[in-house]
Predict the structure.
Amino acid sequence: MKHTDTHPQPNAGKRLLLGAFLAFFLSGCHHGHDETPALPGSLPPVKVALVEARVEESNGVERVVGEVRAKTRSRISVKISGRIASINARVGLRVKRGELLARLDAAEIGAKLDQAEAALDQAERELNRYRGLLSQGAEPQAEFDAVESRQRIAAATVKEARAMREYTEILAPFDGTVSRKLAEVGDIAAPGRPLLELEGDEGLQFVADVPEALVSRLGLGEKLSIQIDGQSSPKLAAMTEIAPSANPLSRTLQVKLDLPDSPDLRAGQFGRALVPVAGAANVRVPASAVIERGQLEMLFVGENGKARMRLVRVGKTMGDQVEILSGVEAGESVVVSDTLPSLRDGQPISSR
């Protein structure tokens, strides 16, 4: 017995759904009270505005977070260990190069210096005596050489003790402003443990870690807009440094941009560098041409003097334009008239 296959074709459901939707849309767009849809041939012609769909490259920006920093800054620490005897700096204080910032207790070092100077004085007296004996032939050359070596060692010990005493005074390495105070009088200072932070007067810069995929778009001297948090208008900054190698963990490269002098800029502020990026080239049409019906988006194009409805897939909106990812080709005429709500598929149209 021959069985008839009653299963629908794979795409039949989709075609039925689309056909039902189009029938509903065509009837729903009719504003009259007559529930009988007009035949395509009986639709009145309307005048519409047509705009050509064009391909344009979408130019956008990538926002990269960064920080405002002083171009010159230093964490001031000591070269020797010791108890802090005094700190002459406070946060916000402006200092000059060579100005005393802090002093360590130098009593022990002073005692060592006195001891070294006394040993040097004794060694020099002994050297002078042996020099006289050598000239008279009363002492061998070897004995004189040993006394001379002891004198040089004593002189070097004095020099070292004097340098240690100088290390007890912490001086400003450049003109600037004290930005942080990290120690107090009585604390034990040690090499590598900062006492103060100093920011120079050379100006400010914006430092950011830029993804390596974006760095290829940047070059030295290029200017970027920097949007500082809490400020309405961006600052224009010039690129001065690009790190030669990327961070292996974050895959970013550090860049630095010189910021203009501005009273509302402070070190430590956060902001975003606007890095220009070029997007894909897609068809664009006016956003007013797109009609939304539930989850579907559509528009009308002009074909041989008639309006033809197209289902489209919409991308990004940029101002009054919208990207069309599929459904319309570049060069086609798109209807943007105010008659769109009542326009019917296949209705005769003429351009205004």
User: Anything to note?
Assistant: The first strand starts at residue 46 and ends at 48. Residues 74-105+172-199 form a domain with the OB fold (Dihydrolipoamide Acetyltransferase, E2P) fold (CATH 2.40.50.100). Residues 107-136 form the longest helix (30 residues). The helical segments are 12-28, 107-136, 141-167, 212-215.
